[in-house]
Design brief:
alpha/beta; TIM Barrel; 18 helices; elongated; Recoverin, domain 1; Double Stranded RNA Binding Domain; about 40% helix; 3 domains
Length: about 525
């Protein structure tokens, strides 16, 4: 079994991960996470610790019943090496098509003496009797010698030998307190596989904690030594500093096949989605610089990096964001950015500057970046407007009234001031207040376009937060000048619908000014307010 070229992914997010302070989930939330883990393709879901509480038992039972089908993953329940715990664990997982009981007992002298108050002989006897009892209930038994990395090597071999003889089919070797270094942990795994009687006939598993920041390195070291199961959590959540992150081990195997030559069943494009789900339910924020799934994992600010990325993504990315379920890389504009990245972003916003114009805009950009941490599209638009004469506002918003909610239809009424001071008023319905607003504005302006992008984010925090909206529109293909050109617009307001209207209006005005579109009231166009009154 240790020569297999496939690694079993044992996910303990719902058990060890949930033990993170403040990370407890309800049984309904755990069920939803378990369903996503099954979609992700994990081989084993450790659904919980059934003896911990009635709710935990119920959660394990529901997961076993609803997720543990014939084509689904193994469903495991954790139990101490005590009869009542093992009975509860079996009660939780027995309805799964592939149930597993995972039982554990400490084997380090420190734990045996200070925590358990047991001798070595008592511990070995307990392992023999409780693993045998678990095997009488279930064919798939995993045993873990807790605090294995601080246990006496010869005693650890004896404990594993007895567990195998009693019926254990998987032997998990925990670095419970994250004490081991990669070379130590790999050597310990290799030694146990080689010296334990029956060790060639079971699956060996790695379970590492990140107290010294070595969880992933230790796990991969164990894999090289012959372990064929890894015990991991989504986002690396877990006790204290956390567990080995699933996404890091999986993508290491995926990205470096020549080193490991091993595969796994994970659908990597589900990694980002799974990460967000677990983060939302546990309330544990994923650090921006977290490997694989952090916000900055595929973001680039340095000018040298951005220039390389624009020429060939492989220069600074060893995997594509799409591989892990993200849409695209990000070129973050800041004080380290270069002219190439600035020019590309300005083009995306609809600004076509010549070489000297880009050079001048870049100087002002650098001055701004030294003062401001985050450079927004609005900042870039302001820089570009300083370079090219800002277009006059053909239309301006004077009033906006929204009606929405359920039941009812979202309705927007807008009043615009147009060329020559004419005023126009128009109402329309839409899929939501923003869609209704844009539709009403389109009926007045009569400037055809395609909405390419609509983005909203909060500038400040709190209920009175200022919201920023950016939009990108594209001129129709039949434009006589500058066919298909893209124009950007920006708006900010405490009311997101108002900010959206401002952004859309700004984009329309830019398009009208750039393409020379003349507003004319053709058939079906709204009349001016004065005409309506007369």
């Amino acid at each position: 079994m240790n020569n297999s070229n496939q690694i079993r992914i044992f996910d303990t997010t719902l058990r060890d991960g949930e033990q993170s302070p403040g990370a407890s989930m309800t049984s309904a939330e755990k069920l939803e996470v378990a369903r996503q883990l099954a979609r992700l393709g994990v081989n084993v879901i450790e659904a919980g610790f059934p003896a911990a509480s009635p709710d935990d038992l119920e959660a394990v039972r529901r997961i076993a019943t609803e997720v543990g089908n014939a084509d689904g993953p193994i469903i495991a329940g954790l139990a101490r090496c005590w009869r009542d715990d093992i009975t509860k664990a079996w009660e939780g997982v027995r309805e799964a098509d592939h149930p597993r009981i995972h039982t554990f007992l400490a084997t380090s002298d420190l734990h045996m003496e200070r925590k358990l108050g047991m001798t070595r002989e008592q511990v070995l006897s307990q392992i023999e009797h409780m693993v045998s009892y678990a095997r009488s209930l279930c064919d798939d038994i995993e045993f873990s010698p807790e605090d294995a990395s601080r246990s006496d090597a010869d005693f650890l071999v004896e404990a594993c030998k007895i567990a195998i003889e009693a019926g254990a089919t998987t032997l998990n070797i925990p670095d419970t307190v994250g004490y081991s270094m990669p070379i130590e942990y790999g050597e310990m795994m290799a030694d146990l596989i080689a010296r334990t009687p029956g060790g060639k006939d079971v699956i060996w598993s790695a379970h590492c904690h990140d107290d010294l920041g070595c969880a992933t390195a230790n796990t991969l070291s164990a894999v090289q030594a012959g372990a064929r199961q890894v015990e991991v959590t989504i986002n690396g959540i877990g006790e204290r500093a956390g567990n080995t992150p699933l996404e890091e081990v999986v993508m290491a195997l995926h990205t470096r096949p020549k080193i490991y030559g091993l595969g796994c069943s994970i659908e990597t494009t589900e990694l980002a989605r799974t990460s967000r789900l677990v983060s939302n339910y546990t309330g544990i924020y994923v650090p921006r610089n977290k490997a694989i799934i952090g916000q900055n994992a595929f973001a680039h600010e340095a000018g040298i990096h951005q220039d390389g990325m624009l020429k060939d993504q492989r220069t600074y990315e060893i995997m594509t964001p799409q591989t892990v379920g993200l849409s695209q890389s990000q070129l973050v504009l800041g004080k380290h950015s270069g002219k190439h990245a600035l020019r590309i972003r300005l083009q995306e916003l609809g600004f076509e500057l010549d070489r000297d114009g880009v050079k001048d805009a870049f100087k002002r950009f650098k001055m701004l970046a030294d003062k401001k941490k985050d450079i927004t599209d609005a900042d870039l638009q302001a820089l570009a407007h300083q370079q090219e004469q800002a277009p006059s506002e053909t239309f301006t918003i004077t009033d906006l009234q929204i009606s929405c909610g359920r039941p009812g239809m979202p309705t927007a009424t807008v009043r615009l001031e147009g060329p020559n001071g004419d005023e126009f008023i128009q109402s329309d319905v839409g899929d939501g207040p923003v869609d209704a607003t844009f539709s009403a504005m389109d009926q007045i302006v009569q400037a055809k376009n395609e909405l390419l992008e609509y983005s909203v984010h909060s500038v400040t925090s709190g209920i009175d937060a200022l919201g920023e909206v950016t939009v990108r529109i594209q001129a129709p293909d039949n434009s006589k000048s500058d066919k298909g050109r893209i124009f950007g617009g920006y708006g900010a307001d405490t009311d997101i619908t108002v900010a959206s209207a401002k952004a859309y209006m700004a984009a329309l005005n830019r398009m009208i000014a750039a393409l020379g579109t003349k507003y004319s009231r053709g058939e079906g166009a709204p009349a001016t307010i004065n005409q309506t009154a007369s």
